[in-house]
Amino acid sequence: MGDVAVGARSGHDGEEHRGRPVESAVPAADSAVTSGNDSGAAEDGRVTGDEPGTDGPGDQGPAGPGGSSPQPKKPRSFWKELPILIGIALVLALLIKTFLVQAFSIPSDSMQNTLQQGDRVLVDKLTPWFGSEPERGEVVVFHDPDDWLAGEPTTNPNAVQTFLSWIGLMPSPSEKDLIKRVIGVGGDTVSCKGTGPLMVNGKALDETSYIYPGNTPCSVDDQGGQFTVKVPEGSIWVMGDHRQNSRDSRYNQSDEHKGMVPVNEVVGRAIVKAWPINRWGTLPVPDTFDQSGLNNQASADLTVAPQGLAFAGVVPVALWRRRRIAAAETR
31, 97, 110, 246: which is the annotated catalytic residue? Predict the structure, then answer.
């Protein structure tokens, strides 16, 4: 209102406000003051009508209350966003546990000294989705194929443990899973005689790098420690690194699968010891499983086939020659 009064005293009122009510200048003056224009611009009515946020012809947007610009939206409260963030984290954890990596706890000493009781390992569950199968020397987790854990004590987890294990943040105490080392795959012949060494396709394994100190590769007993088995396709033969303290394939040969573990029961390969921190480390395949000739079982089958075909071809020729010689002698 003060700006209008100044304009009237300067003698401009007759030119500026001719043909329109004097009141229309009031919002323009108020808008100019609110937007922070200086006094000279406020006194010039021709400028204030074109300022953004006013009702003049130069208006570039809707004006807020009192002619001011719209106020920006207030950011959402942290406490309102927290449940959304927790929900996203839980979904991601569940997806990771189902398709990528899952944590497992070691409940026994059967894999000493590679794994100690209470260790936590991370198991790769991704590669089996792409058709990868267990290989010799790998440490794998698998579902109990046929009551291998019969008689073992079970725990009753509380609600929190059940929830955390469901999303993969804690190992599940209720799942019947085992962890062993793969010794033989489909087509292999695995055998133990005396105290060892352990033989795969006629090749002796040097197991000193991972077998428990003081153990012998083979156990001398009549319960399964002495054996010769042929691993069928689609199965694996597994043994613990603590040979004299592991109920593995050797001691389950009377079950439905004759001690073998079907490949479709394998959860995945243990790749990392994640806990405790001072035992962190990877679980590589020992060098002995890379020795040349370990796949001789397959190559032997291929070399025998041509010899058999040659023999089958020679026999008819020899018989034909004998008949010709006999016919010539009777003439």
Answer: 110
**CA dist., res. 178 & res. 146, Å (int):** 12
Local confidence pLDDT in tens for the 331 residues of the chain? 444 433 333 444 444 444 444 444 444 333 333 334 444 433 343 433 444 444 444 444 444 455 566 667 777 777 877 777 777 777 776 666 656 788 888 988 999 999 999 899 999 888 877 778 999 999 999 999 998 987 665 566 667 766 666 655 555 555 678 999 999 999 999 999 999 999 999 999 999 999 999 999 999 999 999 999 999 999 999 999 999 999 999 999 999 999 999 999 999 999 999 989 999 999 999 999 999 889 876 543 333 333 333 334 444 545 545 555 555 444 4
Given the residues 97, 125, 165, 180, select the one marked as catalytic: 180
* Catalytic annotation present for 180: yes
CA dist 115 and 242 (Å) reads 10
| DSSP label at residue 68 | P
Report the candidate in 222, 291, 279 with the shortest Cα–Cα distance to residue 251.
222
Alpha helices in the chain (DSSP H): 2-9, 13-16, 25-34, 39-43, 45-48, 78-99, 159-166, 296-330
Residue 134: CB partners within 8 Å, gap ≥ 6? 140, 182, 185, 236, 263, 266, 269
Q: Whole-angstrom Cα distance, residue 16 to residue 26?
A: 13
Specify whether 110 is catalytic. yes
Rounded to 5 degrees, φ, ψ at 109 are: -100, 15
Q: Which string of DSSP letters, residue by residue, matches 141-190?
A: EEE-SSSTTTT-------HHHHHHHHTTSS--SSS-EEEEEEEE-TT-EE
